[in-house]
Task: inverse folding
């Protein structure tokens, strides 16, 4: 091989490897990592790893069990303005509303409502269950997992306590 041939050869190999690497990198995001087995593991394993730390891991663990603490944070942002920070139905916006926002701390009212029902009200809004449209659909702001977390938080407010 002449020097020129060598350069061309290695450039071609390099390009092929780069393309191969990119192809696998992209594919590995959609399907689970295990498939692209031979060369991909290095780049493929690297990409999911940080993602697993930041998003996937909490989401996965939370999918098994709703996280009331995380739900509390979202509740303060998305619900407290109407429902009050402690779910007493006394948020600053509540005054202007009729009917009034539900009191999530009222176990006698809230406990008989099922998780499925609460999920529907929160995701698709009050109107989806024949309630006030002022109870806005929050599915655009909250993921399903976040809604489950918020429900877990609401349950923790109930007095008398909620018993699943
Ligand atoms: C703009 C004000 C507003 C915000 C923000 C709001 N709600 Fe409401 N919500 C209401 C009102 C008003 C009602 C009462 C609807 C009715 O009784 O017709 C209500 C009712 C409810 C109910 C009870 C439904 C029932 O069957 O009585 C639940 C549960 C609920 N909201 C959850 C939430 C959660 C969780 C959030 C935040 C993710 C939230 N709401 C944000 C205004 C609001």
Result:
């Amino acid at each position: 091989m002449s020097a020129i041939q060598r350069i061309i050869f290695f450039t071609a190999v390099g390009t092929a490897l780069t393309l191969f690497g990119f192809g696998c990198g992209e594919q590995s995001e959609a399907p689970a990592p295990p498939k692209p087995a031979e060369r991909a593991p290095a780049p493929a394993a690297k990409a999911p790893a940080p993602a697993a730390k930041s998003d996937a891991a909490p989401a996965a663990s939370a999918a098994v069990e709703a996280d009331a603490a995380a739900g509390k944070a979202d509740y303060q942002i998305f619900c407290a303005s109407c429902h009050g920070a402690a779910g007493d139905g006394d948020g600053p916006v509540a005054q202007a509303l009729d009917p009034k926002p539900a009191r999530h701390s009222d176990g006698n009212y809230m406990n008989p409502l099922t998780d499925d029902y609460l999920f529907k009200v929160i995701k698709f809004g009050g109107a989806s269950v024949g309630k006030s449209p002022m109870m806005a659909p929050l599915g655009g702001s909250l993921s399903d997992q976040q809604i489950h977390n918020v429900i877990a938080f609401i349950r923790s407010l109930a007095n008398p306590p909620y018993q699943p």
